[in-house]
Amino acid sequence: MPNVRRRAGVTTAGVRRSSRWAGSGRGGRRQHDQPHRSGVRPARPGPAPSGLVGERRQLVNLAYRLLGSLADTEDVVQETYARWYALTPGQRDAIAAPDAWLARVAGRICLDLLGSARARRERYVGQWLPEPLPARAEWTSDPTGGDPVDQIALDESVGMAFLVVLESMTPAERVAFVLHDVFRYSFAEVAEVVGRTPAACRQLASSGRRRVRGAPVPGVPTARQAGIVREFRKAWQAADIDALVGLLTPDATATGDGGGRVSAALHPIEGAGQVARFFADRGGAASGVRLLECTVNGQPGLVAQVAGVVGAVLAFDVVGDRIRRIWTVLNPDKLRAWTAG
Predict the structure, then answer these.
(1) Could you read off the pLDDT of 73-97 as tens digits, one per residue?
(2) What does each C-alpha distance from 333 to 21, 29, 74, 328 come to in angstroms?
(3) Hey, which of 17, 85, 210, 319 has its CA 20 to 30 A from 251?
(4) Percent of the chain that is helix, strand, coil (3-state, to 5)
(5) CB count, 10 Å around CB of 83?
(6) Dist. CA 294–CA 157, nearest whole Å
(7) What pTM did the predictor assign?
(8) How far is residue 305 CA from its own chain's centroid?
């Protein structure tokens, strides 16, 4: 769907390059293998056959885009492999395309998890944001020694703005849209995951596509975004309200996610003046907060440290020469990839 990719800023080339589709019997596609969270962490599987090791990267990429959580992504992949190893040798031998089987299982687990997540988020304290993705981090809990963070292809489909739009979709819409429009699965393949007809999946993906099209497209070069984020950092450190206002669109919003673990605004802060005052009151040079420029979900962002400890990760949505949205993740459960090492 080139129109969707152009208007939504979804670049699938990077995903496809990292996705080695094997002959699955349906369009020669290969699917992504990633474990999923079911509430009970499965036993770690033994070494995977060489033909399945490469599938882990594909599942990681799929599950993170479907769930917006590195923790859930790790669990989905583990559970998917646990289910594979729970099969008898004869059952495994009877599966003509193990890669496709793994992808279907992972997709179904993600769909189930998305359904339960909607109920959990109704009880979530404050705003829920996707888990921010660093450019690189240690992830020592991976049973195969690989790092999920390093296995995720960075493109617009993991950008915070895109993930936030995905959060507005129903679970079925999100799965159908991501599988088809981002990973280029056929609707027949999507139907096997979602449990609906190909025609119904086509409608689900179309509905998700309309949501994406409704989101404004920034289209700002990365270098320009980095410069604007740098100016924001300087104005924030100087507690310069006027400079901050000048860097924000009039309708700018700032959303924080503390998850009830740390203090955060329960509702988005709206308007350039309100957002500027909010940050100026919390990040001056005398506050002890150290701001570092970094990459967040493939885009320029900031990390806020206090006494050398990461306390917040900020992602930005830049439109033209100004910042339209700021997402600040403070929930320590979502910052583990930023603090491991």
Answers:
(1) 999 999 999 999 999 999 999 998 8
(2) 33, 35, 14, 14
(3) 210
(4) 50, 15, 35
(5) 18
(6) 19
(7) 0.79
(8) 22
